[in-house]
Specification:
Two copies of one chain form a homodimer. Chain A is an all-alpha fold and 216 residues long. Among the domains of chain A are: 57 residues, Orthogonal Bundle (Multidrug-efflux Transporter Regulator, Chain: A, Domain 2), CATH 1.10.1660; 58 residues, no CATH class. Chain A is globular, with a radius of gyration of 22 Å. The model of chain A has no long low-confidence stretch (mean pLDDT 89). At the A-B interface, helix 3, helix 5, helix 7, helix 8 and helix 9 of A face helix 3, helix 5, helix 7, helix 8 and helix 9 of B. The structure holds a DNA duplex (30 and 30 nucleotides).
Chain lengths: 216, 216
DNA sequence: GCATGGTGGATACTGTAACTATCGGATAGC
DNA sequence: GCTATCCGATAGTTACAGTATCCACCATGC
């Protein structure tokens, strides 16, 4: 399989494939004979599909994809660390974090819920900082109001995380498991976001409009 | 309050404020005397803080911010429609959606869960398409495996949406309510994502490592 | 045995997004 | 009156994600 075939199968322009090769997202094909004839296999198609999903649907940047793929490919990186690597990349913020009153309050609130639910998470988990940043921003712009959702969110993500781990645990192969965890986490965020909008619409409809005629 | 003051208070460079004015994100200050002396008030500070949160923490693009702000400011736009407007902007995809087997399956699955939970959502809600797209991408890259989480996700977002609506309903003023819904939805996605990582770490830790010494 | 066209690799270019810098004229406050 | 600041417009900058072009080289069908 040469580039043009890979391009056809995966639906990605050749120029873009070359770009991904340059950027180290996609391993180079085996240069069988010599010099300028490399051959690509099924693994390249998989990887390319993965990259496209992360970029197009997951919204990751190229450098973010490079990072997480490197983590996938390194057998020494534990799973939760790989997922942690996606945090800083999905939420681009974290730059020049202001240490104001809002942030202090957010730190306290996150600490409270982590303790209350008995979560065993390291104090310096990147996701923890991300959560603090978002919560601080909520306070900054919306006052106290928004913090009241925190407990419900925490219970909801426990449900989600249990399901996530069930799915990931069921995969025997290490590489496939890492890939599953990655895709499930990155795309899962967006799936959750879309479902949340639907659920909001539903809840809003049931609360504020008369119920539809019963259909038993 | 002139631009430089606004800049100091909100922590945003003057040049950037001018850019936002140009782009119509921020209403121009009242041009009190005439021509070149405009004055800004507390509302501008609020709006500027809101914009920065949506951009920096929420990750929205400038054009997306313009769209949702226009929806906020228009009293005729119903709440769920405003939130729907954020869907297409957060998930940039939707371009050249392939109608392959994966998508067909995703459509069926979303239809199934919506029916199963009795969700009252319109068939052409933007969030529905977004969910279908993401689910199709999951199938494309990860096979059947990932779809098993769907039911758990649906139950989780019901919890979340109830909490969201509780919070929003508690706000009396229409404008503040719209703003709360917007911020809660956009930033809420990221808060949920970060909390989800934490919960994943916790669940992973409790499943695969010995329990910590008890501290009753 | 040789023309044709695809290949790998390098380099240069394009388009978009989000600012950032400069400029010309006006005006505020001393 | 003088200087600092302001407004508005225009032009420039940086980063990102590709695209496009070039060129020497293989490989294969005639």
């Amino acid at each position: 399989m040469r580039v043009s075939d890979l391009s056809t199968v995966a639906g990605v322009p050749v120029a873009t494939i070359k770009y991904y090769l340059r950027e180290g997202l996609l391993p180079r094909g085996e240069t069988t004979t010599s010099a300028n004839q490399a051959s690509y296999g099924q693994a390249h198609v998989r990887r390319l599909t993965l990259i496209r999903s992360l970029v197009d649907v997951g919204g990751l940047s190229i450098s973010a994809v490079r990072k997480v793929l490197a983590a996938i490919d390194d057998p020494d990186v534990p799973l939760h660390e790989m997922l942690g690597a996606t945090v800083g990349t999905v939420t681009p913020g974290a730059g020049a974090t202001e240490h104001d009153e809002y942030r202090a309050q957010a730190v306290a609130e996150i600490g409270r819920v982590v303790d209350a639910r008995g979560w065993r998470v390291s104090a310096d988990a990147p996701a923890r900082d991300a959560a603090v940043d978002v919560l601080a921003a909520m306070h900054r712009v919306g006052g106290e109001r928004l913090a009241t959702v925190l407990d419900a969110y925490v219970r909801a993500v426990e449900l989600v995380a249990e399901a996530d781990l069930d799915t990931v645990s069921a995969v025997p192969d290490r590489d496939v498991r890492a890939e599953t965890a990655l895709v499930g986490t990155v795309l899962g965020d967006h799936l959750l976001a879309a479902l949340r909008r639907l659920a909001q619409e539903h809840v809003s409809a049931t609360r504020f409009t008369p119920p539809p005629p019963e259909t038993p």
